[in-house]
Amino acid sequence: MKIDSTEFGSITIDGTTYSHDILIQLSGEVVKRKKKLSKKYYGTSHIISLEEAEFVYEKGCNTLVLGTGQYDNVKLSPEAAEFFEHHGCRVILRPTPDAIETYNKTRGKAKAIGLFHVTC
Questions:
Q1: What tens digit of pLDDT does each residue of 11-24 get?
Q2: Whole-structure pTM value
Q3: N or C of the chain: less Cβ packing under 10 Å?
């Protein structure tokens, strides 16, 4: 699995383009991000809530690469950051164009999951 590219509003993985935020699970399965898990708490999907962190996390992962959007607008809530830390999961936050490179490099070396915001 390789993330090919991203542009505002989309991300392309192994030749398939997704026009929504995505989560790449440990298995490599690509699923649509459940933004509502954060939006209901903060009124925006730009802050990752504890509930979304619990959904994203998979037992056995040690790295989350978080694509924070084309303009670096997504952040972890303090509760989400504490959750990942408690589970020994390093979080790498990068603007999505940089995060795809990080994910591609990290995937083979770590048990990594990826969460990618494709707009702002």
A1: 999 999 999 999 99
A2: 0.96
A3: N
